[in-house]
Amino acid sequence: MNISKKIAAIAVAAALTVGGLSATQSASAAEIPGTLTVTPTSGNVSDTYLFNSIALDIGAVAPYNVLAGTFAYQNGVEMGSLANARNAGNVPSTAGTSGLNGSAAFHDRSISPTNNFVSNKQLTALVTPLVTGNWELRWYYFASTTAPNRTTDPYVKLNMTFDSTTGAWAVYSAPAAAVASTTSLTAQATGSAVTLKATVAPAAAVGTVSFSEGSTVVAANVAVSGGVATANLPAVTDGPHSYTATFTPTNAANFTASTSTAASVYVGAIVQSTNVTTSVAAGAGGGVLTLTGVPASVALGAATLNAGTLNASGTLNAVVTDSRQLDFPAWSLTGQIADFKSGTKVLSGKYLGWTPSVTGAPNSVAGAVVLPAPGSVSGLTTVSTLATGAPNNVEVSNVSALLQLKAPKNTPAGDYSAVLTLTLI
């Protein structure tokens, strides 16, 4: 009972699929759902038999239950039949069930030793020869024994392939999906040279890698060997650089293309030291106005990169002693820096600024803060006040200034020095 119900359900489904064709047969041929299998699944036109057996897992549905036939199609065009037509009365018991009486949903016809209803023709005997490429094996169910209509009657198909050069045929097998690849990138600078190393996974992926900086390709089509592609860039300008690597597979059916995330590198090292010297103008007037305690040099130390600039700092100290009479004019201590130099390299003095301070003398006042460029226009290259004061018998002013250097981060490397001139009047 369970088997009958299962067959009835399949028959009803097939009738719904092709029932629209039974009335007028005006529509085009309808492919119906079903599984068509053959043995063997591959061979050659030189083989004695094309197939040993054919199996179909659904039976015919009225009115397409009077005749069945097997045909070859390529590019939608019939190329010819592959075996004798079958009807309910001409299939011997040794050939299997016909599938035309509607009671058998499965039919298999094995050669023992031959079966003209399976395959009694070679592919070379088709009316129109196959060409290299895909083709279809179609199992038709017909509504007429005298006028089978392959334009309107339903069929089940099996996709096949053929090679006209070798004569090989096979049941079509969809190619495996391409394996996804990944690409990673490292960048390393040595002096002005940059080495780019792309690692492609899986290591079996074959292809090339192109390296780019922005939209500019800096090394094209570098072969991948053992999962690695390397590019050496010999003369790269100083400063920051960012690169990406793109893998292109030799066979896109085997592996996908992939692009790395950006790898950044900084080319060129910036090391800077300063030697700041000073000259002092003599005081004038009936008392003594002196400037002492000025060091021969002020070392700002090695510049370090922070917030986009190369920064260095140091402290300048000086002592102003004013023993002039009370009716003498106030004094002013100013400073001005020349450009820094390291051999032929020049760094503008505008990148040096200071923060003055004064202690020990109530009548002395520290000068204004001067920011290094671009915080100010010219930094200490313009004469700037370090401190001012009025005479008060003998008064000692301890003057100091925190010197701050903020140089551009692309400043050439070197040991720089500049002359800072202090003037007391």
UniProtKB/TrEMBL annotation:
Keywords: Signal. It comes from the Bacteria. GO terms for biological process: carbohydrate metabolic process. The keyword Signal applies. InterPro entries: Big_3_5, Ig-like_fold. Residues 182-267 form the Bacterial Ig-like domain. Residues 1-29 form the signal peptide. Gene3D superfamilies: Immunoglobulins (2.60.40.10). This is Ig-like domain (Group 3).
